Amino acid sequence: MCPFQFLSDSETLVIAIELPEPFANDNFVVVAMTNQPDCYAVLTDKTSQTVTLTVVRRELLVDLNGVIHWIAIGDKSTSVVPNHTSEPFYEESNPENVSFAEGQ
């Protein structure tokens, strides 16, 4: 979880989240939502170690507090580099090689 607060004149808010454990690369999935029906979260950037979300609200009426709930799923970072050959290298994901990170 990640708390946020809008002042009455703000329409967007950018939040950077450092992942608790790096992924192998930036090919992972992030899902985020807010607990406020008039706000939504948009993924604006990601690296193997960070996620940047923009929270957008639909109406500028009053100050607004909320929480972002998020989860990221992808391959764990490893120090092993595959051998590069003339054929493409494919690695099947298995539960031991998949990392789950979620907001707490």
Query: Cα-atom Rg, whole angstroms?
Result: 17 Å
Give the overall form. Answer: elongated
Distance between the termini: 5 Å
The number of helical elements comes to 0
**Share of helical residues:** under 10%
Brief characterization of the structure:
This protein is mainly β. It has strands spanning 2-6, 12-18, 29-34, 39-46, 50-57, 64-75, 98-102. The chain has one domain (2-78, 96-102).
How would you describe this protein?
The protein has strands at 2-6, 12-18, 29-34, 39-46, 50-57, 64-75, 98-102. The protein has 104 residues and is mainly beta. It has one domain (2-78, 96-102). The strands form two sheets. Strands 1, 3, 6 and 7 form a four-stranded antiparallel beta sheet that branches. The chain starts with a strand and ends with a strand. The model is unreliable at 80-99 (pLDDT under 50).
Q: How does the SSE layout of this entry go?
A:
Blueprint: E1 2-6, E2 12-18, E3 29-34, E4 39-46, E5 50-57, E6 64-75, E7 98-102
